[in-house]
Amino acid sequence: MDYEEMNYQSFSRDRQLEASYAFPALMRKTYLWMSMALVITGLTAYVVATNAAISNFLFMHSQLIWILFLAEIGLVIGLSAAIRKISLSAATLMFVAYAALNGVTFSSLFYVYTMGSLASTFFITAGTFGAMSLVGFFTKADLSSMGKILLMALIGLIIASVVNIFVASSGLEVLMTYLGVLIFVGLTAYDTQKIKQMFLMAPDASEATQKYAVLGALTLYLDFINLFLYLLRIFGRRE
To answer: Which domain holds residue 103?
Structure first.
């Protein structure tokens, strides 16, 4: 064995050691940022809903909700598209801004559903999400084919939701609600496995790879929020 080969093997072992440290660190950061975003959304929604001045302003200027909704879509698309170019702090700031805007739009839920049903549905969602995330993390089965089917089903669900705005079918609404729960339950497992596989190949926990932890947190945050909204249609009690 010559000196260059020994150097290469030593370098390879060092990289493997870095990767073994990087994986748990990146997974922790992903769930930490996701949890942080959920807290920001919840607190923002509560503050807006309990502040009469802000609530009245939003009620008097209902067009602002559409502006906020479009801003949310823009932040998600912008963060996903520019993740390689922007800094970690910019990516985190965009994620925090998205979570806060979601909180403003979700403040209306406090006027539609009782506080008790919002809390109980949140815990049901947390338990379901946690269980399916563990399935995605520990299963040895490849969920990529299931993920493709779920993404196609999600597109169909979005189209059906738009159609139901005009036809207002209660039967279709119920069907979409339960289908939405199944889709996001499956996507939670699929996205968790996808994030795990991505970080298993990460060479280190540098700023560049941590940006993908922010993106992974956004993905899981969206799964959680959508699962919560569909479960709320089932378990939520209206005011």
So the answer is: 3-235
Q: From CA 100, how far away is CA 133, in angstroms rounded?
A: 24
Q: Quote the DSSP letter at residue 201.
A: T
Closest CA to 75 of 95, 103, 60: 95
| Span 111-144, pLDDT tens digits | 889 999 999 999 999 999 999 999 999 999 999 9
How many folded domains does the chain comprise? 1
How far apart (Å, rounded) are the C-alpha atoms in residues 101 and 15?
A: 40
DSSP string, 33-99: HHHHHHHHHHHHHHHHHH-HHHHHHHHHTTHHHHHHHHHHHHHHHHHHHHTTTS-HHHHHHHHHHHH
Place of tokens 């922790």: 28
DSSP 8-state code for residue 107: T
Q: Which two tokens stand for residue 17?
A: 């050691």
Token duo for residue 200: 């298993």
Of the candidates 77, 60, 219, the one whose C-alpha atom is nearest the C-alpha of residue 136 is 219
